[in-house]
Amino acid sequence: MKKKSLQQKLQDKLSAGKFRILNEMMYLNKGYNMEEYNKLYSFQIKKWSYHPLDKIISMIDSDAFIIDLGCGDATLSKHFKHVINIDKFSKVKNVIQSSSSQLPFNNNIFDVAVFSLSLMFINNTDSILEAYRVLNYNGILIIGEIISRIESIDNFVKCVESTGFKMIDSLVDKWYFIGQFKRINQCKEIMPVILKPCVYKKR
Q1: What is the DSSP string of the chain?
Q2: Model's pTM, two decimal places?
Q3: Which fold has domain 52-183?
Q4: What is the tens place of the pLDDT at every residue in 123-163?
Q5: Nearest Cα residue to 80 out of 99, 101, 53, 100
Q6: Could you tell me which of 70, 73, 64, 11 has the C-alpha nearest to residue 45?
Q7: Domain spans of the chain, in order of start
Q8: pLDDT tens digits, residue range 68-123?
Q9: Cβ atoms 27, 121 nearer than 8 A
Q10: Which residues have a Cβ under 8 Å from the Cβ of 9 and sit 6 or more positions away?
Q11: Which residues does 74 contact at the CB level (< 8 Å), separation at least 6?
């Protein structure tokens, strides 16, 4: 394997730093260049140990009708036949440009809803409630998120469950939380589904 030059190593470091700063701007809604973010995101994921979708794919039945919320490059479509791709900013072919908090679909039509690194707000309650609305009875919600964004896993699960789900499986390691939730009845008191922003730490 060819070693990287010092210049390339410095460029990689600058790209990683810029990606973290753009992440912070996006989560805190401070304004950002989404095209540049997507380009840097594609560069960064090549360096990750694995992507949540690597695990999520194995959780989904092959014949399921799936909605991929915040789909990015629409990876799930490469593995399953029946996928509706939703992303507000993606320019990939066959992606519906829509916010996950206001979906253009009728109630109860999907078998599986997936959020893979795509809960982009601090308060994500509206997006989770929309997933609940468009899922079939007994449908499955799968959330894959960076572990550092979750203050307390137990509390996060409790909040998601209050919107009308029951966690049936999970994978937790030092990188990610991946939770699989079954759609049931909503609680009388819905709790906000909060995630911490990815804040860039200056060194």
Answers
A1: -PPPPHHHHHHHHHHHHHHHHHHHHHHTT----HHHHHHHHHHHHTTSS--HHHHHGGGS-TT--EEEET-TTTGGGGT-SSEEEE-SS--STTEE---TTS-SS-SS-EEEEEEES---SSB-HHHHHHHHHHEEEEEEEEEEEEGGG-S-HHHHHHHHHHTTEEEEEEEE-SSEEEEEEEE-PPPSSPPP-B---------
A2: 0.80
A3: Rossmann fold (3.40.50)
A4: 999 999 999 999 999 999 999 998 989 999 999 999 999 99
A5: 53
A6: 73
A7: 6-45, 52-183
A8: 999 988 999 999 999 999 998 888 889 999 999 999 999 999 999 999 999 988 99
A9: yes
A10: none
A11: 68, 83, 85, 87, 90, 92, 94, 95
In degrees, rounded to 5, the angle at the alpha carbon of residue 85 between the alpha carbons of residues 79 and 90 is 110
Q: According to the model, what pLDDT value does residue 21 have?
A: 41
| 171/179 Cα distance (integer angstroms) | 6
Looking at residue 179, its amino acid is G
108's tokens: 């109860």
Count, residues in the chain: 203
Extract the tokens encoding 66.
């799936």
- Where residue 186 falls (left for φ over 0; alpha for ψ -120 to 50; beta otherwise) is beta
CA distance 92 to 118: 16
* 95-96 vs 110-116, strand pairing mode: unpaired
Q: Which two tokens stand for residue 70?
A: 């915040």
